[in-house]
Amino acid sequence: IVLRKAADGTPLHELSTPGGRTARQADFSPDGTEFAVATRGNEIPIFSATGKPLLTIPTPTDQYYVLYTRDGKHLIASGGDNTLRIYARETGKLVLELPLGRPVATSLALSRDGTTLATAGGIAIDRPPGEPPQPGDFDVRLWRLPESVWPAPAK
After folding, report:
1. Bridge pairing between strands 2-4 and 53-58
2. 40 within 8 A of 24, measured Cβ to Cβ
3. Could you tell me if 75 and 57 are in contact, meaning their C-beta atoms sit under 8 angstroms apart?
């Protein structure tokens, strides 16, 4: 992973994921102070915006997509085993598993109020060599998240 200046692409920092795993996707926390990376390994590394490793969340499978909740207290991850997992950001503890019942979700999006998750999927584009692609239904699905991961109401 290389952090670069947006203006001219000059490298600022070169980061390593645990085990040198390939990065698939990344998401910044809502306050912009850190980012999480979906990797082809069994972990979600979290780095400060300046590139300092902060936490590595172990996962049972590789990850296709990670997404911070609106308040930054949880991370939602789409795993290669067709399961969505929600982790507590501070501790890395698994909070909830939601089986997708379909090939992997390659895209996640949260509603503005942070209570509904949209998933979309299709063919897994980067399967290991020799493994056939997984056909998907290419549907968008909406999931009402449990209240325990909703952001606190604005005061």
Report:
1. unpaired
2. yes
3. yes
- Ramachandran bin of 40, using left for φ above 0, alpha for ψ from -120 to 50, beta for the remaining angles: alpha
pLDDT in tens, 66-123: 999 999 999 999 988 888 999 999 999 999 998 887 667 888 999 999 999 998 876 5
Q: How confident is the model at residue 137 (pLDDT cuts 50, 70, 90)?
A: low
Please report, for residues 38, 47, 61, 107, the alpha-carbon distance to residue 126 in angstroms, rounded to integers and kept in the order given: 13, 24, 15, 14
**Amino acid letter, residue 40:** R
C-alpha 146 chain-centroid distance: 18
- The pLDDT value given to residue 90: 95
Tokens representing residue 42 in the block: 């069994």
Please list, in sequence order, all residues whose beta carbon lies within 8 angstroms of the beta carbon of residue 52, skipping any fewer than 6 positions away. Answer: none
What pTM does this model have? 0.82
Q: Is the dihedral of CA 90, 60, 105, 119 positive or negative?
A: negative
Q: What is the DSSP letter of 124?
A: -
What is the amino acid identity at position 18? P
DSSP line for 53-82: EEEEEE-SS-EEEEEE-TTSSEEEEEETTS
